[in-house]
Amino acid sequence: MMKKKRRFYTTGIITVILLAGGLLFLQKEQSEANALDADKLSNTKHITRDSSVEGKTYQETITIAAIGDVLIHDTVFEDARTTDSFDFKPMLAPVKEALMKPDILLANQETILGGIELGLSGYPTFNSPREVGEALMDAGVDIVSTANNHTLDKGEKGIQSSMSYMTEVGLPYVGSFKDDEDKQRLRVLNHSGINIAYLSYTYGTNGIPVPEGKDFLVNLIDKAAMKEEIHRAREVSDVVVMSIHWGNEYQRFPDTIQQELAQFIVDEGVDVVFGHHPHVLQPMEWLKAQDGRQALVIYSLGNFLSGQMWDYKDIGGMASVDIIKQVSPSGMSVELANPSFFPTFVSSKGQRNYKVVPLKQASDFGLENASAKYEEILTHMMDPLNVN
Questions:
Q1: What is the C-alpha to C-alpha distance for residues 318 and 363, in angstroms, rounded to an integer?
Q2: pLDDT tens across 226-281, in order?
Q3: Does residue 290 form part of some domain?
Q4: How many domains does the chain fold into?
Q5: Residue among 280, 279, 243, 283 nearest 259 (CA)
Q6: What are phi and psi of 183, to 5 degrees?
Q7: Alpha-carbon dihedral sign for residues 19, 22, 27, 28
Q8: What is the DSSP string of 96-152?
Q9: What is the pLDDT of residues 290-338, one digit of tens each?
Q10: Residue 37 maps to a domain
Q11: With bands split at pLDDT 50, 70 and 90, how would you rate the model's confidence at 141?
Q12: Domain enclosing residue 181, as ranges
């Protein structure tokens, strides 16, 4: 599906071929060299991850990350229009290399991908070209969060159309669901033997009521429901990630409601919180759970790609953290380490030529004092992590 996935699958195919060849060789030579026994077969280069093997210890490290709001205003999709389609890939090209580095990358897909059949639209009720999804996948996005205040902008038909498209192209989504059965199916992504469960909730849907009896269409913040799902997720995963739509628009720091809710979901079992909705960046911090775990909260990842400008609304980025899993005869442990932030800037000229670029190099795309702004944003996002 993506370059990093294709490398994984190719390696797997080669490993299977080599193993098959090795087995045939052993069968052929067994009568002449009985010394080649089962122990020899188990000593291959691909390390077993069976924690039940006495005396075995292994450690795996992966990086998970998230980007903020993909909020496709009409100026953005008009800029992506081609003769007979849309192409958003050039908008992400300047940051594609950075986005491909994490092992699992989440994006907050703020607008539905209902396509031209439903009629494209921007603010206040969005519907975006489906080619947005193609560009995200091409740039390395592995899963999208779909619970937000615009989930029901085009009603049930809109979100169902968007989910059908994502299912068709193989883009996992979480936060809105096709039916009750789909809602009960936890989204657990595995990389290198580490299972990551993804959950997603929103404070509301801009006053648009959820159709009666169809709560599965969007996850609304409800502590009882969140607690139940978090506990289910912990049973089948090593790490639980919550994507959450909350807070006040354009405020650069979290409010007490966000802080209290963050502590609640961390205490219930969430390890990483990726926040969205304010459209500007809000800081990252460590929270200590009741059971002693250390959890990471990013209160808002801001806008990643949108038509909004100025007052920090055109600055976003990618937050990442390492997941270290160790299995030994004494048990299994999971640790979060090395949180980092990669600031980005949405460049445009006259609401045309939209590009998401590294903030550090944004002076090449018309942003004055980009270096100073880069340092300011890193301080804003990262400094709270060092507060004891």
A1: 19
A2: 999 999 999 999 999 999 999 999 999 999 999 999 999 999 999 999 999 999 99
A3: yes
A4: 1
A5: 283
A6: -65, -35
A7: positive
A8: HHHHTSSSEEEEEE-S----GGG--B-TTS-B--THHHHHHHHTT--EEE--STTTT
A9: 999 999 999 999 999 999 999 999 999 999 999 999 998 889 999 999 9
A10: no
A11: very high
A12: 58-386
CB 139, CB 154: distance < 8 Å: no
- Phi, psi angle pair for 49, to nearest 5°: -115, 35
Q: Which two tokens stand for residue 30?
A: 């067994």
pTM, full prediction: 0.85
- pLDDT above 80 for 9: no
Please give the structure tokens belonging to residue 38. Answer: 């089962």
What CATH number does the domain containing 140 carry? 3.60.21.10
* Rounded Cα gap, residues 252 and 249, in angstroms: 9
Whether 18 is covered by a domain: the verdict is no
Q: What distance in Å separates the CA atoms of residue 379 and residue 369, rounded to the nearest whole number?
A: 16
Q: Which two tokens stand for residue 378?
A: 């890193």
User: What's the burial of 179, exposed, middle or buried (CB within 10 Å: 0-12/13-18/19+)?
Assistant: exposed
44 located within any domain: no
